[in-house]
Amino acid sequence: MHIVFFSDHHPDSLGGVQTSLLLQKKYLEKLGHKVTVVSSRRYRRKRNPEFIEVPALPLPPTGAYSIQPSLHLAFRKAERALAELGEPVDLVHIQADMWQAILGAKWAIDHDIPLVWTVHTNLQVGFQHNVGKLGRRTVAQVMNLWASTFLNQPMPAKTNSLWAFQEQIARHANFVASPSGHFNRELIKHAVTASPLMFPNGVDDEVAAGVSHQWNEASSRKIKLIWAGRFSSEKRISEFLGAFALADLENVELDIYGSGQLEAKIRLLIRQLGIHKTAHLRGRLPHKQLVATFATADAVCQTSIGFETQGMTVYEAISVGTPVFVVDPMIAGELPAANVWLSKKPEVDSMAKGLRAMVADIRAGNAKRADETGDWTVLQSKLTDRWLKVYAEAIKQGPKRLNK
What is the model's pTM? Predict the structure, then answer.
């Protein structure tokens, strides 16, 4: 089977979507299938011949995200490169939420090929966090216009809704999936699709198998917490640092992994809060190394609320035996309850109380270790087996043809 992935994010960059895409590619290829990736080119980086890279420009301030300067130019590049492969394509799997979602749908339609789409991101919440309500509406209007024009279909009634944009893509897919049950409920609520599948982002079996804990009694030793993610407003790293300072935890160390547009602010905030001796910025790590580092912690913390469609770090942590501290009850509901501490509310003082309670539990021997999670698993081998069944059914159905 030959599957083409379309991705907004270059696989060489760090992030949950990129990690998921590469793992799916790895485990499909282990089973003898071929995967071709079409992605936005990383700005000012050496081209990677393993992927089909289409022209892209970085979005400020950090360039972590990109935009296609011309959908037509990007499409022509992808069209030529896929034609030069000279290999029939059985299925398109869109692993993108923005420009490449449009391109993937267009390519599948033009070539009369079945289409599957994984919706990774809550665009409505994400853009509102970063550019405000007015900015989010503007982005929605642009994306809806691009999709309707490029896919030759009428503009939706709600042009200022990014849910409407996502529906423009979803209508062409044989199957739509998302990483969590709670995000699936949002997709149904906002009429993106009627019956989405739930496919969490996976954890590499080989990485999980190669990691082991050395649990030590914790009544008096130093307790290690980890926070990992992008330094951006929707991840609420500033609020978490405020809670960590307010909790005033004795003999507790916090390691912070990641980077992003708020990095300078975070460095200053750590000093201002007086926690620079216990909270440490550790930079970015390759995914395999980061997951192994999770196994050295007493807990991995995630503090976003209403944004994450899955929240990969806490899944990875539990997969290698480490319990988690979360703020979003929707995320907590997707995880084994025995391995989770949930802050009662998202505010700083409530998170501080939750951190104190968690540390007290760990000190008392209620460490909520995740050595055995029963039927709960996000190992990629299991997910790939499920995906292959979906792919086979999509191919059996044939491409979706809409009456315009």
Answer: 0.84
